[in-house]
Amino acid sequence: MKRSQSGLAKQAGSAKRPRTESSYQTSSSGQSKLGTAYDPAFEQKFKDNGVFMDDSGPKPNNWTDIQTRLARPRRSLSPTQFSDSEFAKFKEANGKATTETTTITDAFFLYIAGTTNILSQKDVVFNNLQDWPMKNIKQVKPDSYDGSDPSDLRLGIREMLSESIEPSTDKSRPILANCFKEGKGVKGSPLVLRQQALRDGGEGGRAMIAIRTYIDPETAYDGNAYTMAATYHPEGGLLILYTVHAVAVTGKPYPAEYRMRRLNIWIMDFAPEAFREGATWLRNGRDLMKEYRDGHIALANNKFQTQQAAAADQAVQAPSPAQPLANTQPHVLVAVPPPQPVPPQSAHRKVLRPRK
Predict the structure, then answer these.
(1) Strands, E, within the chain: which ranges?
(2) Model pTM greater than 0.70?
(3) In the structure, what pLDDT confidence band is assigned to residue 353 with cuts at 50, 70 and 90?
(4) Residue pair 178/226 in contact by the 8 Å Cβ criterion
(5) What is the C-alpha separation between 120 and 148, in angstroms, rounded?
(6) Staple partner for 254: which of 5, 50, 302, 355, CB 3.0–4.6 Å?
(7) CA angle, corner 9, sides to 187 and 11, nearest 5?
């Protein structure tokens, strides 16, 4: 009996034993978590690649413009359209969002992110993007991201910038991802949630810099933020919006730094007013990121078309090459002697007579 109690005690003790580094770095499916947002060294690895959280450094140059734009009222979220009874339905759904899937589907998208015609995809593995300089970061898989229809951008540009703007090897997926949404269940880690937003934002920042560099390398790094990430945690209803902007650097193993900064925070299940404001900022932010994508795509297409037209004009104006002669053998001059005079016939020409 004592032995059995001892065995139970050992089992209980092993169940409470703190997670070791190796168990933390391996998922339930047996796959390593090294290089992912679950890796304890994740933030340091991303700092080594020039991507980091920066709430104390310089703000993006368009910081005030973004805040002003995102604060614009939306009719769909006015008290007459989104009533207190609708807020009560959200609180009920949020209380039932115990898993990451239910958080994203039932609380975040159904109520906070809203319905929109913006092209969006869930759970797409970004397996087509170039490695980071230090090659120590695994592929990202956002809960959801907004992008543009591939056919909106000229094929020649897509092929040229493929590893920067086409996140998936499935070329039908939205391109130029610059708006990300991440969520967790009630037991999910807020730290991991933030790190996932950082990971997403770094990829979005690189995509926008790639197309800006194609448009005009001289003005690519203008200090503006063209990427946004949103995280939502149902425990406390915490919605956080982040911006990501790029800064050119020299003397480092990477050409640019991508700095993520908190834009605003709301406790969405606290009061209807807080919900309306947070949802307004998020939905306006998605609209603004789409405008950024559309604007850059239009400029890139215009440059591509101009270059194609200039190349065609040069081809038309170029002189035609000389046609080769049918006989390509070299001509050889041969001296021909002058004609010789024919001697006159003799008047006394001998006449041959037949023999008798």
Answers:
(1) 51-53, 120-122, 144-148, 175-183, 225-233, 238-248, 256-267
(2) yes
(3) low
(4) yes
(5) 8
(6) 50
(7) 55
Quick: pLDDT tens for 251-274. 998 899 999 999 999 999 999 999
Place of tokens 């947070």: 278
Average pLDDT on 284-293 reads 98
Pick the closest to residue 192 from 20, 32, 26, 38 (CA basis): 38
pLDDT at residue 12 above 70? no
Q: Which two tokens stand for residue 237?
A: 């209803």
* Polymer length of the chain: 356
Residues of the chain by 3-state class (helix, strand, coil), percent to 5 = 40, 15, 40
- In the block, tokens 């007013």 appear at 273
pLDDT for 190 equals: 92
Residue 297 has pLDDT above 60, yes or no: yes
**Contact (CB, 8 A) for 242 and 228:** yes
Place of tokens 């580094």: 21
**Residue for token pair 């032995």:** 3
Mean pLDDT of the chain: 84
Taking each continuous run of H as one helix and of E as one strand, the counts in the chain are 10, 7
Amino acid at 68: T
Cα 138 from Cα 123, distance rounded (Å): 15
Q: Count other C-beta atoms under 10 Å from residue 322's C-beta.
A: 6
Residue 349's contacts (CB-CB under 8 Å, 6 or more residues apart) are: none
Query: Are 243 and 261 a contacting pair, CB within 8 Å?
Result: yes
Nearest-angstrom CA–CA distance, 94 and 90 = 6
Confidence of residue 23 (pLDDT cuts 50, 70, 90): very low
